[in-house]
Design brief:
Layout (H helix, E strand, L loop, with lengths): L8 E2 L12 H10 L5 H21 L5 E3 L7 H8 L16 H10 L9 E3 L6 E3 L14 H12 L4 E6 L1 H6 L18 H18 L3 E5 L9 H14 L7 E6 L6 H7 L5 E5 L7 H5 L8 E7 L9 H14 L3 E5 L18 H4 L5 H17 L3 H5 L10 H8 L11 H12 L16 H11 L5 H22 L16 H4 L3 E4 L6 E4 L2 E3 L3 E7 L6 H9 L6 E5 L1 H6 L2 E2 L5 H21 L4 E5 L14 H16 L7 E6 L7 H8 L3 E4 L5 H13 L7 E4 L12 H15 L17 H29 L1
Parallel strand pairs: 1-10, 2-5, 5-6, 6-7, 7-8, 8-9, 9-10, 14-16, 15-17, 17-18, 18-19, 19-20
Antiparallel strand pairs: 3-4, 11-14, 12-13
Length: 771
C-alpha cells in the first residue's frame, strides 16, 4: 500500500441521465406529443440532476461531476454552450422558446431536417452533429451549467463541470452544409473558439468552481502532426488563462497516447486516462517527463462494459501507478452514460451472471472501494468477497468453431450468383424496398407485454402478430414496393429479439441505456458460449411470404452488430465469440432458405463500432469481423440473395467495406451525407475500383419525421445511378421505420417508389436507344 497522508481521491467522468425509471424518456415523449407542459418537463430534468448529485455525493466520491445531464444530447448541448448554431436554424430562433429551438435542431420538422445523427467514436451512442461554417461566430451561453452548479452548491456539493474540449468539439462537427460552401478544415475556427473557453473559465472561477473537466475523446484516435501541434498550442494557451479553475483533461474511450506527453508540457493540473481497456504500464508512464507533477485520474473502472473489476488485480495495478503518480484519483475511464443504472433491479438474472456484473451504481461503489483500499489497505470484509466467476464452456460449440475452414467463409463468385438471382427473382431495375422494421402499433406492444406477463397464450399472441404482419404486407403491395418485409412486429429490438433465443446471452428487464434522444435499448449480456437451440425468425417470415407473390426478405442481425450492441464476455478473444454467433446465424440463414425465403438481409450497421480507434489493430479487426459476416452468410445456394445494411465512417472506406463483405446488395446509412458516399463511389469507379455488387445508398432519413418529396428522391437516386449504374442500384431508406408513424411512412414510401420508377424508365429508355 502506498502511504499517502491525505489518501487517494475518487471520482467518475459522468453518469446516466435518462432517469432510473426512464423518467426523462417518458417526459420528453409526452412533451413532444403535447401532453406535458414545458415547466413539467423542466421539473423532471431538475429532479434527475438533483437526485444524481445527491446520490453520488452520498456514496463517498470525493469529486462529483456536473453538467452531464442533457435533455437530448450532450454534444449538441456543448455546441449551444459556445453559440454554434447553424445558419439554417437562425431564422427560427426568435419565434421559439429556447427549449423548443433546441429540439428543432435535434429533431427537425417536415420542412427542416435536423442535425445529422452520427455515432460517437467506438460507442453505440449517437449524437446530433454540430454544423460549422467559415464565418461561424462563437459566444458563451452558460446559464444551464451555472444553474445546476448553484443548486448543488446550495446543498453543500461542489460539482466539477464537464465540458467537451475545444478540439473535440470542432472535430466532432461537420462542415460543408452551408449552400455554396465546400468542406474545410474545422480547426481553422480554433482561434475564434478559444477566447470563449477562456471566458467560461473566468465565469466558473468567479462562481467558485475549483476544477473543470475537459473531455478530448478525439485524441484517442490517430491524429496528424499538425493537429497534435494545435493540441499543444491550445492547452499551453488555456492553461495560462489569467483566471480559471484547475483543469482536468481526459481521453475517454481509448489510448490517449501522445496527448499525455503534450499535456505534461503544459500547466494543465490533471490528466484522465482510460485504463480499463487500455492499461499503460507504470514504467512507461514514469518515462514521460513531468507526469509526476500532474494529478492522475486513473480510469481503471470501465465506463463501457458491465463486468465487475477484479479487485485484487486492479488494486495491485493502482499501487504500481501510485509509485509513479502519488497524486492520484481513482476513476472511471469514461462516462457511465453507456451502462445501465443498477444491477440489483434485475431480479431473475442467474446468480453466476449477476455476481459478475456492475452497472453504474455498482461501478461508483467500485471506485470508492478501490480508493479506500488504496489508502488504508483492503479490509477483511473486502478480502472475503469473490473477485471472479468462471462460466461453464459448451464443448460442442467450441468444437464447431475450431472446425471452421476458410472455405466456409466463401460463396460462389458474385457474377455467377448474380445471374442465378436474376433468373429466380426477376426484379426490375432500381427495385424499391425498406430495411426491415415497420411502425410498432399499440396492439403489437400490448400483445408482447401481455405475453411476457403470462396473461396471453402464445397461440393468441401469434394471431395478433400475424394480423399486424398481414396489414404490413398489404400496405407494401398497395404502395408498390418490389421487395417486401414482414415488419418485425414480433421484435422489441433487433438485438434483444435474437439474444433472448440464443444460449450464452442474458437479457435484462431494466438495463436501459440511452443511444440518442429519448431512444433507449437494453443491451444483452454475452456471458458464455453462444448457440442457437432452434429457429428464431423463420416462422414469422415464412408466414409473411405465404401472403404474397412478391419476395419477402428474411431479417437477421449480423454477428458483429450482435456483439457491438451487447456487453460481451472478456475471458476469451472477441473474434472467437464472433464466430460462435456467426455459426448460430448461419444456421438461421440456412433455415430461412429452406423455408422458401429467396432474399435474406443480415444487418451489420455496427460493424465499424468495434474498430480500434488507432490504426494499430484495425487491419486485424476488419479481417475477423468480415470473416464472421462471411461465415454467417456463406452456407447457402448462389440463387439466394444476401443483403446487408452498414454504416460508414469516411469516404475512403465505403467501397472497400462493401466489397469485402461480399453481400449481393448493401444498403448504406447515408441520407444526410449521401453526397459523400456518392463521391466515394464515383472516385473509385473512375480509378477502376468501383462496386461490382448491388448497393442502396439510403435516400431518406428513417429517424426523421420529415417526408421527402418525389423530386428530391429522384435527384438523389439519379446521382446514385450515375455512380453505380442502374443495374446495381436499389432504392431504400437509410434504416428501419420502427420509430415512424404510418402517416409519415405511407407518403414517404409512395414517393420513394415513384422516384425509383422515374429513374427506371429513364434507364430503360436510354438502354433502348443504345440498343
Amino acid at each position: 500500500m502506498v502511504n499517502v497522508a491525505d489518501g487517494f481521491g475518487s471520482s467518475i467522468l459522468g453518469y446516466p441521465r435518462i432517469g432510473q425509471h426512464r423518467e426523462l424518456k417518458r417526459a420528453l415523449e409526452s412533451y413532444w406529443h403535447g401532453t406535458l407542459s414545458r415547466d413539467e418537463l423542466l421539473a423532471v430534468g431538475r429532479e434527475i440532476q438533483e437526485s444524481q448529485y445527491l446520490e453520488l455525493a452520498a456514496t463517498g466520491l470525493t469529486q462529483v461531476p456536473g453538467n452531464t445531464f442533457s435533455f437530448y444530447d450532450h454534444i449538441l448541448d456543448n455546441a449551444l454552450l459556445f453559440g454554434a448554431v447553424p445558419k439554417r436554424f437562425e431564422p427560427f430562433r426568435a419565434g421559439l422558446d429556447p427549449l423548443d429551438f433546441y429540439f428543432l435542431m435535434a429533431r427537425g420538422r417536415p420542412d427542416l431536417p435536423p442535425l445529422e445523427l452520427v455515432k460517437l467514436l467506438n460507442t453505440p451512442y449517437h449524437y446530433r452533429q454540430p454544423e460549422l461554417a467559415t464565418d461561424t461566430e462563437f459566444s458563451l451561453h452558460p446559464e444551464a451549467l451555472l444553474d445546476e452548479f448553484d443548486r448543488a452548491k446550495a446543498v453543500g456539493i461542489e460539482l466539477r463541470p464537464v465540458v467537451l474540449g475545444p478540439l473535440s468539439l470542432l472535430l466532432l462537427s461537420k462542415t460543408g452544409s452551408v449552400p455554396g460552401e465546400t468542406e474545410f478544415d474545422k480547426l481553422v475556427l480554433l482561434d475564434k473558439l478559444l477566447p470563449v473557453y477562456e471566458e467560461l473559465f473566468e465565469v466558473l472561477a468567479k462562481r467558485g468552481a475549483t476544477c473543470v473537466q475537459l473531455d478530448e475523446p478525439c485524441f484517442t484516435s490517430d491524429r496528424s502532426p499538425s493537429t497534435m501541434e494545435l493540441f499543444e498550442k491550445t492547452y499551453q494557451r488555456l492553461s495560462k488563462a489569467p483566471l480559471r479553475p484547475r483543469m482536468l483533461v481526459t481521453g475517454p474511450y481509448g489510448d490517449f497516447g501522445e496527448a499525455v506527453e503534450i499535456l505534461c508540457r503544459t500547466a494543465v493540473e490533471a490528466i484522465g486516462l482510460d485504463l480499463a481497456g487500455h492499461r499503460v504500464r507504470p514504467e512507461d508512464l514514469a518515462a514521460i517527463p513531468g507526469i509526476k507533477r500532474k494529478r492522475l485520474y486513473a480510469g481503471v473502472i470501465s465506463g463501457t462494459n458491465v463486468w465487475r473489476a477484479d479487485r485484487y488485480v486492479t488494486l495491485e495495478y493502482l499501487n504500481a501507478l501510485a509509485q509513479v503518480c502519488p497524486d492520484m484519483v481513482v476513476s472511471t475511464g469514461a462516462s457511465l452514460l453507456h451502462v445501465p443504472y443498477d444491477v440489483l433491479r434485475e431480479y431473475d438474472l442467474e446468480g453466476p451472471v449477476a455476481d459478475r456484473l456492475a452497472f453504474a451504481k455498482q461501478k461508483v461503489l467500485e471506485v470508492v472501494s478501490l480508493a479506500k483500499a488504496l489508502t488504508e489497505g483492503p479490509s477483511e470484509k473486502w478480502r472475503k468477497k469473490p473477485t471472479s466467476v468462471h462460466f461453464k464452456q459448451k464443448h460442442a460449440v467450441r468444437q464447431r468453431v475450431y472446425a471452421v475452414t476458410p472455405q466456409m467463409r466463401v460463396r460462389e463468385p458474385y457474377e455467377m450468383r448474380k445471374l442465378a438471382q436474376q433468373a429466380k427473382l426477376r426484379l426490375p431495375l432500381v427495385p424499391a424496398t425498406t430495411l426491415g422494421s415497420f411502425p410498432q402499433t399499440a396492439t403489437a406492444r400490448q400483445a408482447r407485454h401481455e405475453l411476457g406477463e403470462g396473461r396471453l397464450s402464445f397461440d393468441e399472441y401469434r394471431k395478433r402478430i400475424e394480423a399486424e404482419i398481414e396489414a404490413s404486407i398489404r400496405l407494401q403491395e398497395d404502395i408498390g414496393l418490389d421487395v417486401l418485409v414482414h415488419g418485425e412486429h414480433e421484435r422489441n429490438d433487433m438485438i434483444q429479439f435474437f439474444a433472448e433465443q440464443l444460449d450464452g446471452f442474458a437479457t435484462t428487464h431494466y438495463g436501459w441505456v440511452q443511444v440518442y434522444g429519448s431512444r433507449c435499448v437494453r443491451p444483452p449480456i454475452v456471458y458464455g458460449d453462444v448457440a442457437r437451440p432452434e429457429a428464431m425468425s423463420v416462422s414469422w417470415t415464412a408466414y409473411a411470404q405465404s401472403l404474397t407473390d412478391k419476395p419477402v426478405k428474411g431479417m437477421v442481425t449480423g454477428p458483429v452488430t450482435m456483439l457491438a450492441r451487447s456487453f460481451v464476455r472478456q475471458d476469451q478473444p472477441l473474434y472467437e465469440t464472433a464466430d460462435q454467433v456467426a455459426l448460430a446465424i448461419r444456421d438461421e440463414v440456412a433455415d430461412l432458405e429452406r423455408a422458401g425465403i429467396a432474399i435474406i438481409q443480415v444487418d451489420e450497421p455496427s460493424i465499424r463500432e468495434l474498430l480500434p480507434l488507432r490504426k494499430k489493430g484495425q487491419a486485424e479487426y476488419l479481417r475477423w469481423a468480415v470473416g464472421a459476416f462471411r461465415l454467417a452468410t456463406s452456407g447457402i445456394k448462389p440463387e439466394t440473395q444476401i443483403h446487408t445494411h452498414i454504416g460508414y465512417s469516411s469516404r475512403g472506406d465505403v467501397v472497400a467495406a462493401i466489397e469485402e463483405l461480399d453481400a449481393d446488395v448493401t444498403a448504406i446509412v447515408a441520407t444526410r451525407s449521401i453526397e459523400w458516399v456518392l463521391e466515394a463511389l464515383k472516385e473509385d469507379c473512375a480509378e477502376g475500383r468501383g462496386l461490382t455488387h448491388g448497393v442502396g445508398p439510403g435516400v431518406y432519413e428513417s429517424r426523421s419525421a420529415r417526408i421527402p418529396d418525389i423530386d428530391e428522391l429522384d435527384e438523389l437516386l439519379t446521382a446514385a445511378a450515375e455512380a453505380v449504374t442502374p443495374e446495381r442500384l436499389w432504392a431504400n431508406p437509410d434504416g428501419g421505420l420502427k420509430t415512424r408513424h404510418h402517416w409519415q411512412l405511407d407518403p414517404s414510401l409512395r414517393n420513394l417508389v415513384a422516384a425509383a420508377r422515374r429513374v427506371r424508365r429513364r434507364a430503360e429508355a436510354a438502354a433502348g436507344e443504345t440498343a
